[in-house]
Amino acid sequence: MEIKITDLDHQGRGIGRINNKIVFIPNTIPGEIVEIKIIKEKKKYTEGQVKSFIQKSKDRIENLCPYYPSCGGCQLLHLPYQQQLIYKQKKLQNIFSRYGLNNIIINEIIGSPQKFHYRNKVTFHIQNNQLGYYLNNSNKIIPINECLLLNETINQNITKLPKNNNQIIVRSNNKEITYQQDKKIIHTIVDYKFLVSIKSFFQINDYVTPLLYNQIKKYLNPKKSDVILDLYCGTGTIGIYISKDVREVVGIEVNAQAIEDAKTNAQLNNIKNIKFICGDAGTESNKLKNKFDSIIVDPPRAGLNKNTIDAIINFKPNKLVYVSCDPMTLVRDLNILKKYYNIIEVTPFDMFPNTYHVESVSLLTLK
Q1: Cis peptide bond upstream of 327, omega within 30
Q2: Are 258 and 335 found together in one domain?
Q3: Disulfide-capable partner of 282 in 48, 76, 265, 308 (CB 3.0 to 4.6 Å)?
Q4: Would residue 192 count as lying in a domain?
């Protein structure tokens, strides 16, 4: 079955049509003509797989990974990096426009200084004494001994990792590596050092993280008199990064191990004006009596829960800085907050090169 690719969807798959019904085909580029086989038929759409290329795009590059596109880790390895950035910029603009936020300023995406070997953490799956990633749309693994996304230290140690569980989480600062629950390693962001446990949240791309944090600081434009609330604070990285420019920071995080790391990190960096609370961001912030000048939120993909949004509305901070790893939940939350806040602008970041994911930071000011 022959089909022409006309666009890319939000997961990086090519879009074509058969009898006016949408077909999603991974590893394709707009303008290409491909022969496909149907792998899944749904009422509203079809999923296909390339059997052969009849006409390839001049933009297509030969990927360097022997596991692509079978492995589900990357979706855009066949696109030149500049084209990946254009795709992500357009994706964010389309989502904002589709959900009624088409007048919002979306700045040009900030790319990653390193498009390969940037990941400092990975989860490997293990089956039959083989370690690897899941195949696309499957719970079967593809054994690997190197991954272009992982930093060099992880790659050098893949074959040495134990295979006695169903999965193993590995973290590395590109000097040392850990996969043990009780061993922490230190990551450095500019002048700050952060001790991080294996399951604590820490930004995945060491090269983009400083750029992201500088943008957060720029949006906050902090004053020495400011009191800042840092929700979903993880290991305290953002709060510590801005702490020297403000009077006080309060961080809230549900992960008890991350809070333990955050307290250690404050001591490690000799920061005295920050405190951390363990618990749900919404529940714990609603208990606080402080007056906050600004609030930072960096939620998981699920976005903000109702309690957190209610707390933000009740606190009425002059500024809200929203760090998001999922544009869909971001626009959902912004559509609730826009009644109370002006959405000034959004800056996207390519935290995850060669994948369809896009990070962003939004600045909101109180109406």
Answers
A1: no
A2: yes
A3: 308
A4: yes
Mind giving me the DSSP string for 153-202? Answer: HHHHHGGGS--SSSEEEEEE-SS-EE--TT--EEEEETTEEEEE-TTS--
Q: Please state, in angstroms and rounded to a whole number, the distance separating the CA atoms of residues 97 and 276.
A: 37
Same structural domain, 266 and 311? yes
- d(C-alpha 289, C-alpha 208), whole Å: 35
Q: What is the pLDDT of residues 321-342, one digit of tens each?
A: 999 999 999 999 999 999 999 9
Alpha-carbon torsion (75, 81, 87, 90), positive or negative:
positive
Structure tokens at 190: 């500019």
pLDDT one-digit tens code per residue, 25-84: 999 999 999 999 999 999 899 999 999 999 999 999 987 899 998 888 899 999 999 999
CA distances from 42 to 22, 53, 120, 139 (A): 10, 24, 37, 21
* Active site annotation includes 233: no
Q: Which two tokens stand for residue 193?
A: 């050092």
Q: Residue 69: inside a domain, yes or no?
A: no
Select which of 74, 147, 233, 325 is catalytic.
325
Q: How many CA atoms lie within 13 A of 241 on its CB side?
A: 23
Is 216 inside a domain boundary? yes
Q: Are 197 and 261 in contact (CB under 8 A)?
A: yes
Q: Look up the domain containing 303 and give its range.
A: 84-114+203-366
Q: Name which of 117, 13, 17 is nearest 64 in CA terms.
A: 117
